[in-house]
Amino acid sequence: MDDLTGFQRDLLYVIAGEEQPSGQDVKVEIEKYYSSEINYGRLYPNLETVVNKELVEKGQLDSRTNYYDTTGKSKEVMEERQEWEEQYLSS
């Protein structure tokens, strides 16, 4: 996860917390966390990056809507990150 931006990492957590969210669903949740509007020019290129890194799978809900889902690789990466954070937070 060391080669991801903080925003990309946050996208992983949002996707992991939802049941195959659409891009719009991800946008709504990430905007709540950041307390600001996230434009599509920021959101979708970053979603494509995590898809290309095989951390997220992209599928099609209908002809206009994609869904996103975490992969086994992303779950492993998030668990490693959590362990790393806990070593600093628990001391």
TrEMBL record:
Matches recorded under Pfam families: PadR
User: How is this protein named in the record?
Assistant: PadR family transcriptional regulator
**Transcription regulator PadR N-terminal domain ranges (all copies):** 11-79
Report the InterPro entries cross-referenced here: Tscrpt_reg_PadR_N, WH-like_DNA-bd_sf, WH_DNA-bd_sf
Q: Which Gene3D superfamilies match?
A: Winged helix-like DNA-binding domain superfamily/Winged helix DNA-binding domain
